[in-house]
Amino acid sequence: MDPAVVATLISTPVSVLAAAASYAAGRIQGRAAYNGPVDAVRRQHQRDAYTGFLAAVNAYASQTTWNACFEEAHSAMGVDSFFEDGRDEVERYAVRVRAAVPIKPLYGAAAAVSLEGPDQVAVLANDVIQYADQVREEAKDGNRPGSAFRALLEGRQPDAGLPAHLRMTQAIDAFTAAARSHLNGTKPSHA
């Protein structure tokens, strides 16, 4: 056989393999060039959703603390600072103040988190919403005998265990840690 034909037969499979490898590498690079910006945009949308949710729940949490509600009721009623006679009335008004704090902004912010995901972060956001609903229900329960507020005002632990507001703030902390971990690409620390 002619040496030129043998050289051509040997180099043809090598050329075909090199072309296939070059094609595959080009596809991988093209996919990475496309997915990189898409992933960055998705991450920014998640960050925005998480930030909006945290702003809404932290505002709700600060507006529904007993001290904030009590101070608002106290100043709205114009009761003297040494007011033991009117304390029960201020406490009843504070319960109504807490029940009146709007909760709807939390639902919208939680929906954005649910859409952006991932599932484990969305589940934690849902936990926060459930506890916020419980805070609202405790406030609607008001000063009735056996209510969580009455137990706290009497210096007792409520029958239902930890007050919903404390459980809500713990759930906010868990959500914050999971969201931070997801956005930074790290595993959550369990301290």
Write a brief structural summary.
This protein has 191 residues and is mainly alpha-helical.
Topology:
Elements: H1 3-63, H2 66-77, H3 87-100, H4 104-116, H5 119-141, H6 148-153, H7 164-184
Helix pairs in contact: 1-4, 1-5, 1-7, 2-3, 3-5, 4-5, 5-7
Question: What features would you describe in this structure?
Answer:
Helix 4 runs antiparallel to helix 5. This protein starts with a helix and ends in a 7-residue tail after the last helix. The chain is built from 7 helices and no strands. The mean pLDDT is 80. By secondary structure, the protein is mainly alpha-helical.
Low-confidence runs of at least 5 consecutive residues: none
Distance between the termini: 76 Å
CA radius of gyration: 30 Å
Helix tally equals: 7
**Strand proportion:** under 5%
Mean pLDDT: 80
Largest sheet: none
Helix share bin: over 70%
Global outline? rod-shaped
Classification by helices and strands: mainly alpha
Give, in order, the helices and strands.
Answer: HHHHHHH
SS elements, strand count = 0
